[in-house]
Design the sequence.
């Protein structure tokens, strides 16, 4: 915990955040992580569903042709 | 060309797919510029110190939390009245984005509130109405998952969306309705900001044309947020709006494809 506090203090001093460094940094980290997760999950599901649809359409085309 | 043509799933996908990379690019550019500007190049507030930098995430997220529900209300009403499937799927696609925005607003608000108010949480009208809005988002998403028949799910979630709109509306105006609690009045009024910009521009033009003898003074309205903070905040707000548009287009397209997979599989089983 002391190491964590020292790292946060060091970053806060470097960024000029004063005594509220932990609050500001944690807000940014949490928010940006949530946004990045949302974008990643949406993109991953979009790619997965697109591939699944292509596979189903190909399968049905094959069965109709055959 | 009618707006309702976009209710056709093929037309919707064909129109939104080329827009997506641009929308994600513009959103990323706005967020990077706004957040870097706000974080590194704005001064600390006299009273709040560096915690004022949280505004660049808290305010846009809170704005979107309410506006996403507003968009879901419109698309739900379109579903109930005109029975366009794309509109029901757009509402479904928007809900996870709305819940993330609400969560960001609640978390950053708590982190900001602790050093400023001395508490993480208070049963303040705005905070409480946001918590209820968060629960409505959860309930809305759970209801979609709980019902197998997509049309019944769309009907019931639309009704839930209409009921929840009361709380979205209360979240927006809670501070005005109940003049109590810890949360300050709204930080940003785009109407007032626009009014101030237009009034100042008009005064500048008038004074430039008619000179010093007929100088007009503009009675600008009170600003809750100084322009030093407001410009990067506005860029972040635009970034959040464009990010939402990009995500809702992408997620709606995905929902349309999921529906198509189900339809094809069901047709294959029958025949």
Sequence:
């Amino acid at each position: 915990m002391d190491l964590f506090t020292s790292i946060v203090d060091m970053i806060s001093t470097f960024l000029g955040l004063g005594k509220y460094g932990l609050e500001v940094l944690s807000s940014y980290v949490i928010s940006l992580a949530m946004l990045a997760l949302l974008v990643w999950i949406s993109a991953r599901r979009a790619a997965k569903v697109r591939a699944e649809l292509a596979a189903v359409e190909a399968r049905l085309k094959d069965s109709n042709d055959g | 060309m009618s707006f309702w043509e976009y209710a056709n799933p093929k037309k919707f996908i064909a129109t939104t797919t080329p827009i997506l990379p641009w929308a994600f690019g513009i959103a990323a550019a706005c967020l990077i510029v706004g957040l870097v500007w706000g974080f590194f190049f704005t001064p600390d507030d006299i009273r709040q110190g560096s915690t004022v930098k949280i505004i660049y995430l808290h305010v846009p997220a809170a704005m979107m939390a309410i506006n996403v529900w507003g968009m879901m209300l419109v698309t739900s009403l379109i579903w109930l009245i005109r029975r366009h499937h794309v509109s029901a799927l757009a509402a479904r696609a928007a809900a996870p984005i709305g819940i993330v925005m609400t969560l960001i607003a609640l978390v950053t608000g708590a982190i900001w509130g602790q050093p400023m108010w001395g508490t993480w949480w208070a049963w303040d009208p705005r905070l409480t109405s946001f918590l209820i809005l968060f629960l409505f988002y959860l309930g809305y998403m759970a209801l979609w998952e709980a019902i197998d028949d997509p049309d019944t799910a769309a009907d019931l979630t639309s009704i839930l969306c209409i009921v929840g709109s009361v709380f979205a509306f209360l979240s927006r105006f809670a501070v005005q309705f109940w003049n109590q609690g810890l949360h300050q009045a709204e930080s940003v009024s785009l109407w007032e900001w626009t009014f101030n910009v237009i009034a100042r521009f008009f005064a500048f033009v008038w004074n430039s044309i008619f000179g010093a003898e007929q100088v007009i003074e503009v009675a600008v309205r009170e600003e809750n947020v100084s322009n030093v903070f407001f410009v990067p905040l506005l860029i972040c707000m635009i970034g959040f709006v464009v990010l939402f548009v990009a995500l809702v287009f992408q997620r709606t397209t995905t929902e349309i494809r999921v529906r198509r997979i189900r339809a094809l599989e069901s047709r294959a089983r029958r025949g």
